[in-house]
Write a structure and sequence with these properties.
It is a single chain. By secondary structure, the protein is mostly helical. The protein has 11 helices and 9 strands. The protein has a 3-stranded antiparallel beta sheet, with no helix packed on it. The protein has a two-stranded antiparallel sheet with strand order 2-3. Strand 8 and strand 9 form a beta hairpin. The longest helix is centred in the middle third of the chain and has 32 residues. The C terminus is likely disordered.
Length: about 350
Amino acid sequence: MAPSGSRNIKKGCWRVLYWIPVLFIALVVAWSYYAYVLQLCIESIEHTGEKVIYLLVYHVVFIMFVWAYWQTIFTRPMNPLKEFHLSYSDKELLEREDRGESQQEILRRIARDLPIYTRTNSGAIRFCDRCQLLKPDRCHHCSVCNKCILKMDHHCPWVNNCVGFSNYKFFMLFLAYSLLYCLFITATDLQYFIKFWLNGLPDTQAKFHILFLFFSACMFSVSLASLLTYHCWLVCRNRSTLEAVRAPVFRHGTDKSGFSLGFSKNFRQVFGDEVKYWPIPVFSGLGDGCSFPTCLVNLDPEQPSSSPTRSHPVSKSAADGRQSKPLTESQSRLLTSTICWSEIDSATDRKGQSRLLLLVV
């Protein structure tokens, strides 16, 4: 068998294995539906009003939970735009250069016309040799998906997908609705779980479904609550999981809060401006995923200054046909009224100096 044929078979086997965690979650959810709807509500609950209310609320939460989970799994991660890919002439030029410094000089020339402000730990341009592109800010290469993902948070085996710019809101809603789903089951199943230990339930198979349903819901609630709390903290700080582990590097140095614009703007960057879309698993985030507003960009002398109403001016190297990408309208709204931390620090210093002068006088 040809090496390429065996490699394809191996990749196909891995693709099947990657779906095992998703299949496990699907089976658990299907069993929980059977146990709650049929065994608990229909077989065990005698009061009709209580039964109807439980079933109505349960199905609303269940639909939102499954919808968010579906969106998280089947929303394709976004990849960098073609402006970030090397042209054929740039690839040839890069391949002819043997020295790393010469290659970096070529990459720096190309990056001047792109909204790129982050660097590697050594201060070099972030370049993906596999995808042959300059990585946009917050973009990372996923070894499982074998592609660069915009604003990559992590690759989640439970959804068999990369969580990034295109589906991060769906992932957050999936965690929220799955936690609500487990808490609702725990709360409504509690009294019948107590009856189980007091031998107050008829001796049927429903007893064991009610028992395991309560334990399963409690167990998943603890893990989901901790995970949701952590990601809520990330949203409030405008960080991804990768950025929480390793802070982004700008030209002036490492800054873990480099993309933070304050709680309100950080939240709206993920969930959007319209409140009616916040609880619904439809995309409503701001920006294009390739560039992100930050008050620190003005500290980069090699990049054109950005403002809420102006696009990046074209540099001299734009003669090659490249043009810098202007900020989108949503990014401009996020930048409005945002004060640079350097301006805040300088204002604080000026106030302190004034107070010292008054004391001297």
